[in-house]
Amino acid sequence: MSPSKSPIVSNELLTLISLAKNAGEAILGYHGNCKSTVKSDGTPSTIADETAGRIISAGLRERRYLVVNEEEAECVSTQIPEAGIAWVDPIDGTEEFVKGTEKFWMLIGIARQNIPVLGVAYNPVTKEVFFAENNGCYQEKKTASVQSIYLPNLGSIE
Question: What is the DSSP letter of 75?
């Protein structure tokens, strides 16, 4: 695929991107304007982590995913739904978020039968979106253009 062509993505992936963008919009007011607390595992957390986590997790649960969210209590279930498991880190880089830098990401990953099948990384400050599906990995930039990503050791992933 040439960079000028847009990938065909599933509605499921579009939903994940939308959830990340909605959560990102909701937390921008806290960017560089909140304090962190320390969770029991020694990692930082903020009201923005909790807010983004709630938005993303609620949307995923509506779609019948088992959600494992870094900001929530342990997920305990013996039943994995057909939709799969959703792994969520609402703000990867909380300390950078608190400092007001652009060096943080909102992460959502989906696995079915222990195989990763979808992934989204979104930065609400830069508006960059990286997403993966069907053995393809792409980047959406502010201009809304979509480009394939080239990995030197693997070649182009398309």
Answer: P
For the chain, list the domains and their CATH numbers: 11-157 (3.30.540.10)
Give the Cα separation of 13 and 108 in Å (integer). Answer: 10
Residue 42 is classified by DSSP as S
Tokens 């880089």 belong to 93
Q: Cα–Cα distances in Å, from 111 out to 100, 108, 148? A: 32, 10, 22
The pLDDT tens digits of the residues spanning 59-107 come to 999 999 999 888 876 665 667 788 889 999 999 999 999 999 999 999 9
Contact of 85 with 65, CB cutoff 8 Å? yes
pTM over 0.90: no
Question: Strands (DSSP E) along 43-135, which ranges?
Answer: 44-45, 66-69, 85-92, 105-112, 115-123, 128-133
Residue with tokens 């201009």: 143
Residue 76 half-sphere exposure toward CB, CA atoms < 13 A? 2
